Amino acid sequence: MNKFQLSILLDETISFPEVLLKARETEEIAEIVTLLEEYDKGKTTKLLIKTADGVEVIEKSVIQIIESFGKKVEITTEEEVYQTNGPLYQVIERINDVTFIQISKSVYVQMKNIRRLELSFSGNYLVEVGKRKLSVSRRFVKELLRRLEKL
């Protein structure tokens, strides 16, 4: 039994997709709209970051590390480190990219930039990203290993 009916109409005369939703409840429509907005957000390849000097446009693909230091967030690329104010979760929401993974409470890394994973003397894992080695919190190790196996 289907929970929805899907109709597709191809029209070469339109310049962008058009979505028409019909439902009994506004809650159903709100859920679908949220999904569509999240899908659309994920398609952008650039991230706008407000810095002390203005607004920087950064390609998501060159970001290596995103880390929080209190109310400041640092975004590290191979060439530069950008600083912005605000909570880490807002930057991560704006990036909306599954290629990033959380390795500690305050650090995310882009999976493709992980060069090495090693066990430290203390029993913790260290991840090598670019020229840096970052500690992986125990609660994030299992997910990191699972996702690395899929690369």
From TrEMBL:
InterPro entries, per the entry: LytR-like (IPR046947), LytTR_DNA-bd_dom (IPR007492)
The UniProt record lists the keyword Repeat: no
Keywords linked to the UniProt accession: DNA-binding
Molecular function GO terms recorded: DNA binding; phosphorelay response regulator activity
SMART domains reported for this sequence: LytTR (SM00850)
One Pfam family per UniProt: LytTR
Signal sequence, renumbered to the chain: none
Domain HTH LytTR-type: 47-150
Stored PANTHER family: STAGE 0 SPORULATION PROTEIN A HOMOLOG (PTHR37299:SF1), TRANSCRIPTIONAL REGULATOR-RELATED (PTHR37299)
Identification of the protein by name: LytTr DNA-binding domain-containing protein
Protein species of origin: Pilibacter termitis
